[in-house]
């Protein structure tokens, strides 16, 4: 499915990939990467692709939820949050795969409306659309 990209960014990884460095071409962000102990690395301070994915997905989903709320002619309640948990591990078919779970907090919103908003947001959020064919995203909705 073609996408009319309105914004693009460029990042370059150097070193060993998961144990190297990644930097944005515009110079606004550069991170040291560290392999987690759970994946056989040293762990410690540093980022990894799963941490970066969790940051991006939670922010993107909250933004997409605002678009979904407009379509539903409602508002995202003040104090709402989206927490993304991203996992990585071996797949039974071989190789590695990721897991994703979103905890969506919508204070004061009726449960049925919150569920409807979360479901609609999955059709709008670019991250949800990017992974929908390969990752079963678990969602918890709290209000």
Write the layout of secondary structure elements.
Layout: E1 11-14, E2 21-24, E3 30-32, H1 49-71, E4 81-90, E5 96-105, H2 111-124, H3 126-131, E6 137-142
Parallel strand pairs: 5-6
Antiparallel strand pairs: 1-2, 2-3, 4-5
Helix pairs in contact: 1-2
What would the keywords be for this entry?
30% helix, N-terminal domain of TfIIb, alpha+beta, 3-stranded mixed β-sheet, globular, 3-stranded antiparallel β-sheet, single chain, 3 helices, 143 residues, 2 domains, GMP Synthetase, Chain A, domain 3
Task: Please provide the ordered H/E string of secondary-structure elements.
Answer: EEEHEEHHE
How many structural domains can be distinguished in the coordinates? 2
Residue ranges: pLDDT <50 for 5 or more in a row? Answer: none
Which CATH class of the largest domain applies here?
Alpha Beta
Distance between the termini: 35 Å
- Rg, rounded, reads 17 Å
- Mean model confidence by pLDDT: 96
| Tally of individual helices | 3
Tally of extended strands? Answer: 6
Helical residue percent band: 25-40%
Largest sheet: 3 strands, antiparallel
Indicate the overall shape: globular
Describe this structure in words.
The protein is α+β, with helices and mostly antiparallel strands and 143 residues long. The chain has 2 domains: 1-47, N-terminal domain of TfIIb (Single Sheet); 49-142, K homology (KH) domain (GMP Synthetase, Chain A, domain 3). The protein contains 3 helices and 6 strands. It has helices spanning 49-71, 111-124, 126-131; strands at residues 11-14, 21-24, 30-32, 81-90, 96-105, 137-142. A 3-stranded antiparallel β-sheet has the order 1-2-3, with no helix packed on it. Strands 4-5-6 form a 3-stranded mixed β-sheet. The longest helix is centred in the middle third of the chain and has 23 residues, at 49-71. The protein is globular and about 50 Å long. It starts with 10 loop residues before the first strand and ends with a strand.
